[in-house]
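subagent[fold] <- orchestrator: predict structure for attached chain, return tokens only, no commentary.
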Amino acid sequence: MDTRYDRNIRIKEIGAEGQNKLLSSSVLVIGAGGLGSPVIYYLAAAGTGTIAIADGDEVEVINLNRQILHFESDLGRLKTDSAADKVKKLNSKVKVICHPQMINAQNAADIISQYDFIIDAVDNFAVKYLINDTCVKLKKPYCHGGALAWGGQLMTYTPGQACLRCFMSNVPAGDDAHTSINDGILGAVAGNIGTLQAMEAVKYITNAGTLNTGRMLFFDGLKMQYRVLNITKKQGCTACGG
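subagent[fold] -> orchestrator:
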């Protein structure tokens, strides 16, 4: 096995068996921005066999404070192309599949069904719920993440566990005003949440440790605190049925 993975293999919960699972796994990262950037980097470094990237946006200068996959020389390029280039420079053995389009109701099931684990790294709540509903329907495990200003949140879904709609059935009225356009976002906050999402994917694939299922992890960067809220399956949930 490639010696580049020596430090992974030395982790007792991973070992050679876990590394082989990573090498044969596929992860879909939806969103190649502030969250998706660290997810993609760390999954590539860990030796994830196939990384698929879904994003229809082009790189803009306002992205560069947090979207560390993209450089000044990438301005105007599709984020999927920019991200794929960085993966290949970091780990040429990783297979990269680009879906240069936004996830929507027409393509979500077709794209999501192809991969072992899904990462929700988008900044749009309507799309987050679409990802949740599609993963629940297809029985696909996924990790939800969000970041804004100084804070972020994360939860992992596996079949049979509480889903995002069990936590919050719909976007609260007026919540669409809370976006990075209005409230800003610190790059390191997105990096923190994205890194944790990558860790959840690795843990799921290698069957290591305990996933953040049935609970939402919250991060407050100003206070440098994490807190966890337990989430139970909601009776009558429109996605998972409770």
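orchestrator: received. Logging for downstream: The chain has one domain: 3-230. Residues 3-230 form a domain with the Rossmann fold fold (CATH 3.40.50.720).
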